[in-house]
Amino acid sequence: MTSHLLAAPLPEVTPALDLLTVPQVMARLQLGRSAVYDLLRTGQLASITLGRARRIPTHALTDFIRTRLEQKAA
């Protein structure tokens, strides 16, 4: 006998990789620290602040890259 609670999809657990640190973004974009902070300061790359820590959602990095590729293609 299967419980109806077991049949329902479980909420997706957000892995820690969904939020990137500035050094992780630096490595992925192969940019320096100042360049990444410039992208954050100008709003080109979205981020959140948790206490004193700055985190960049992976979807924000993906959106940033997609936007740059579309600009180049235009």
Automatic annotation (TrEMBL):
<protein>
    <recommendedName>
        <fullName>Helix-turn-helix domain-containing protein</fullName>
    </recommendedName>
</protein>
<dbReference type="Pfam" id="PF12728">
    <property type="entry name" value="HTH_17"/>
</dbReference>
<dbReference type="InterPro" id="IPR041657">
    <property type="entry name" value="HTH_17"/>
</dbReference>
<dbReference type="InterPro" id="IPR010093">
    <property type="entry name" value="SinI_DNA-bd"/>
</dbReference>
<feature type="domain" description="Helix-turn-helix">
    <location>
        <begin position="19"/>
        <end position="68"/>
    </location>
</feature>
